[in-house]
Amino acid sequence: MNLQKSRRKRGVILTPQGWEKFQRARTEAEDCDNDGIRYTLEALSFRIGLDSDTLCKVCDRQVGVDKNTLHRCFAAFSLFLEPRDYYRPELPSERVAELGAGRVKVRRDWDEAPDCGVFYGRTEELAQLESWILEERSRLVALVGMGGMGKTCLSVKLAEQIQDRFEFVIWRSLHHAYPVKELLAGLLKFLANDTEVNLPETVDGRISQLIQYLREHRCLLVFDNMETILQGCDRATDLCHCMGYYGEGYEGYGELLKRLGETPHQSCLVLTSREKPKEIALLEGAILPVRSLPVKGLPAAAAQKILTANGCFWESLNDCNQIVDFYGGNPLALKIISRTIQTLFDGNLSEFLQQKPGVFGHIRYLLDRHFERLSDPEKEIINWLSSNHQPASFSQLREQISPQMSPTNLLEALESLTERCLIDKATPKFIDKGSTLFYLQPVVREYAISSSLSR
Ligand SMILES: Nc1ncnc2c1ncn2[C@@H]1O[C@H](COP(=O)(O)OP(=O)(O)OP(=O)(O)O)[C@@H](O)[C@H]1O
Ligand SMILES: [Mg+2]
After folding, report:
1. CATH number for position 34
2. 147 CB less than 6 Å from ligand 1?
3. Which of 92, 214, 219, 239 could make an S-S bridge to 265, C-beta 3.0–4.6 Å?
4. What is the CATH number of the domain that holds 274?
5. 121 CB less than 6 Å from ligand 1?
6. Looking at ligand 1, which atom is closest to the CA of residue 295?
7. By residue range, what is the domain housing residue 42?
8. Whole-Å CA distances, 73 to 10, 25, 134
9. Which atom of ligand 1 is found nearest the CA of 366?
């Protein structure tokens, strides 16, 4: 309750983007409604219905104002206030916040979170995630995508952007595959401000204690690299029932996700993974507070920035776009090829393109790791799509592959490949009345062809 009061006192401030939006609308209104003459402070106060002191605070952007004030300012110019248009001024990290009966510190533990200083694009993804977490109060959010797509960086940027809305921010990489009991012990200790905690013996007991904290405090937890504790598919099996399931000894993570998704609390767990954990697949939905965001390649403009920032140039923009398409806008792949282009072609991307580069070095290693985890039906689909040059509909796949594979296996395998973002789908517009088509990203197709040739 006292924390609520302190937040109200801090209020919100327009971001540069929100300020620009407001200014643009104001200038347009001056042109249309005021013969191009700038509004005086009084005229602006009258139009918005706010006293001039408050309006000065909005325009100075030095101290916070009530969020409704910003809503009024925006509504006066027919604008809609979005989460990215405002922020809450940063709390000094060690500031003491009043909470309930006791006093606790606002605390952050970034653990091994990487520094993602150079970061392009992703504004839509960040706005979507911010809206799920801050406006819709999602409790569990998964960022799922192929290796190198930028899931970790996106999670760091997101957490940095919304950190001041939480009392605790805890970022953990699961790369070291901690047993869940150990991970929970670390979280509980941190949440108890490193004071003596009475740790329950069982995983269930520790999850209950964690949920208690997540109810009493607004916490943001980020678990990176969740795929580390998921099992790959058993090559021998024909089924892909293993997709999104846990490796031996890590089943407790499933229980943790399930309870964090199902039980009411005021916190949020964001996780990144190359594969979607099964709890997310089962719980997510438009009205449930469990969401997943497929992290896809960067659009051309952002991808070009990565290439130029890494010393590449090109003779025609088409050359650059061909490279970006081939590597599916994967930021890691683009950084890797930039290094090769620098070393071997003095930064000339067009010259590199003429060599028909294909899949090499770390990009091959990355795809090897993905392919190792595929089941036989998944491999069969990828091989068929790579040899068939056109995208294919589900019925085409069924006709071509199904004699050897049951329709159920085909469905499961296709779903798991799409969720891992190894297969893309193009959904024709309703008016076309066509079927959804499945296709491989060029780099995945090239990899599949070269792997089948080398077998
Ligand atoms: N939006 C971006 N702009 C610029 N560089 C980016 C962007 N996103 C990611 N990168 C860079 O691409 C590389 C891969 O990003 P990241 O580690 O976040 O990928 P990932 O999806 O988490 O991969 P993995 O599945 O292997 O964990 C990093 O070097 C990162 O700095
Ligand atoms: Mg990562």
Report:
1. 1.10.260
2. yes
3. 214
4. 3.40.50.300
5. yes
6. 21
7. 2-87
8. 18, 10, 21
9. 26
Q: Are residues 153 and 242 in the same domain?
A: yes
Torsion, Cα 344 346 350 351, to 10 degrees, reads -40
Neighbouring C-alpha atoms within 13 Å toward the C-beta of 427: 2
pLDDT in tens, 195-221: 788 899 999 999 999 999 998 889 999
Beta carbons within 8 Å of 177's beta carbon, 6+ residues apart: 228, 229, 250
Nearest listed ligand to the Cα of residue 171: 2
Q: What would the pLDDT profile of 161-181 be if each residue is shown by its tens digit?
A: 998 889 999 999 998 888 999
**pLDDT tens per residue across span 380-421:** 899 889 888 788 888 888 888 766 778 888 888 888 888 777
Question: Which of 30-34, 203-207, 239-243 has the least mean pLDDT?
Answer: 239-243
Domain stop point among 57, 87, 117: 87
Residue 381: how many CB atoms within 10 A of its CB?
27
Task: Tell me if 273 CB under 6 Å of ligand 1.
Answer: no
Residue 149 Cβ < 6 Å to ligand 1? yes
Indicate which atom in ligand 1 lies nearest the CA of residue 147.
Answer: 25
Residue 347 Cβ < 6 Å to ligand 1: no
Write the CB contacts of 117 (distance below 8 Å, at least 6 apart in sequence): none
Helix axes 331-345, 317-326, angle to 10 degrees: 130
Same domain, 376 and 431: yes
Pick from 112, 115, 116, 327 the residue to mutate for probing ligand 1's pocket: most ligand atoms within 8 Å of its CB: 116
Give SS3 for 104. Answer: strand
Residues 43 and 157 in one domain: no
Same domain, 185 and 137: yes
Q: How far does the centroid of ligand 2 lie from the alpha carbon of residue 54, in Å?
A: 44
Same domain, 9 and 39: yes
Is the pLDDT confidence value at 193 over 60? yes
Please indicate, yes or no, whether residues 224 and 239 belong to a single structural domain of this protein.
Answer: yes
Ligand 1 atom closest to Cα of residue 306:
4
- Say yes or no: CB of residue 87 within 6 Å of ligand 1: no
Same domain, 82 and 100: no
